[in-house]
């Protein structure tokens, strides 16, 4: 039984909720551990075709690392610090899963700061409520956004824009992030679920192995020149080519019906 992460699976869609609304869904090591366990489950379960991650309540996706808890640990006994260090050894953060095979949608139900924004940046699609604000304020606390923020942000928006936010800790509105191409869609808060579900349904119209092959080709291909990327072999594309679904798509088109995907 998890304490800080809620998880459900229905119709091939995993729903993940960071559940610490009393602290704006701030991330302590225990939350990171539970999220790591859930990510393992999503990755390994063939019945999961995509995932949606959000925060509990309507105020925050996540405020980032729980700095009050961090301060307490820094002042704690050596035994307590050792216990936390041992817990971190069991954690593989979503932000470190650079080649996660399945698509993830970040549902920004409110503000996303620090580690919270870094989780969103590691997702494939971001849908935000219009009142959401995002930022990487770590330098204002003597820290840096080292869970991917310093590397993903300048890869996802123009360099000068990224440096402006990274070097000042300034935040931005959802509308500004949309204009920069950092967010896919911004809607009023009361339409957030409708907008997210629209993305979910469109992804589910696609063959799951094709989606995984596309994601792998994109994410791994970015590590190579165009010619090298196009010449590489990709595990999920090999599986897709040999799958039942690769025959089902053309067959359904010829028979003038919707395809029935199996993920096999």
Structural class: alpha/beta
Mean pLDDT: 97
Give the CATH level 1 class of the largest domain. Alpha Beta
Strand proportion: 15-25%
Topology order in helix (H) and strand (E) letters: EEHEEHHEEHEEHHEHEHHHHH
Estimate the global geometry from the Cα principal axes.
Answer: globular
- Tell me the Rg in angstroms: 19 Å
Please, how many helices? 12
**For the largest beta sheet, what order do the strands appear in spatially?**
1-2-3-5-7-10
Number of distinct beta strands:
10
CATH topology (level 3) name of the largest domain: 2-enoyl-CoA Hydratase, Chain A, domain 1
Low-confidence region ranges:
none
Helix % is 40-55%
The CATH fourth-level homologous superfamily of the largest domain: 2-enoyl-CoA Hydratase, Chain A, domain 1
Domain module count? 2
Give descriptors for this structure:
12 helices; globular; 10 strands; alpha/beta; 264 residues; six-stranded mixed beta sheet; Lyase 2-enoyl-coa Hydratase, Chain  A, domain 2; 2-enoyl-CoA Hydratase, Chain A, domain 1; four-stranded mixed beta sheet
Would you mind describing this structure in some detail?
The chain has 264 residues and is α/β, with parallel strands linked by helices. The protein has two domains: 5-203, Alpha-Beta Complex (2-enoyl-CoA Hydratase, Chain A, domain 1); 207-254, Lyase 2-enoyl-coa Hydratase, Chain  A, domain 2. Helix content is 44%, strand content 16%. Strand 2, helix 1 and strand 3 (50-55) form a beta-alpha-beta unit. It is globular, with a radius of gyration of 19 Å. The model has no long low-confidence stretch (mean pLDDT 97).
């Amino acid at each position: 039984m998890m304490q800080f992460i809620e998880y459900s699976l229905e119709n091939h869609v995993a729903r993940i909720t960071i559940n610490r609304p009393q602290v704006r869904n701030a991330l302590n090591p225990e939350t990171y551990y539970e999220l790591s366990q859930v990510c393992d489950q999503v990755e390994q379960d063939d019945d999961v075709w995509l995932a949606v991650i959000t925060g509990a309540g309507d105020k925050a996706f996540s405020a980032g690392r729980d700095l009050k808890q961090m301060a307490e640990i820094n002042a704690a006994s050596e035994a307590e610090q050792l216990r936390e260090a041992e817990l971190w050894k069991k954690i593989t953060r979503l932000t470190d899963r650079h080649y996660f095979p399945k698509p993830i949608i970040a549902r920004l139900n409110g503000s996303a700061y620090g580690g919270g924004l870094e989780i969103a940046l590691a997702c494939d699609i971001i849908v935000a409520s219009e009142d959401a604000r995002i930022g990487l304020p770590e330098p204002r606390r003597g820290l840096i956004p080292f869970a991917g923020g310093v590397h993903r942000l300048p890869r996802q928006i123009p360099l000068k824009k990224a440096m402006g936010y990274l070097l000042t800790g300034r935040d931005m509105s959802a509308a500004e992030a949309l204009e920069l191409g950092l967010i896919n869609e911004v809607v009023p808060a009361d339409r957030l679920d409708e907008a997210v579900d629209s993305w979910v349904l469109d992804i589910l119209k696609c063959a799951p192995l094709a989606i995984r092959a596309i994601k792998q080709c994109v994410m791994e291909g970015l590590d190579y020149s165009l010619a090298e990327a196009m010449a590489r072999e990709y595990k999920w594309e090999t599986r897709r080519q040999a799958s039942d679904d690769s025959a089902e798509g053309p067959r359904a088109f010829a028979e003038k019906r919707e395809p029935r995907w199996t993920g096999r």
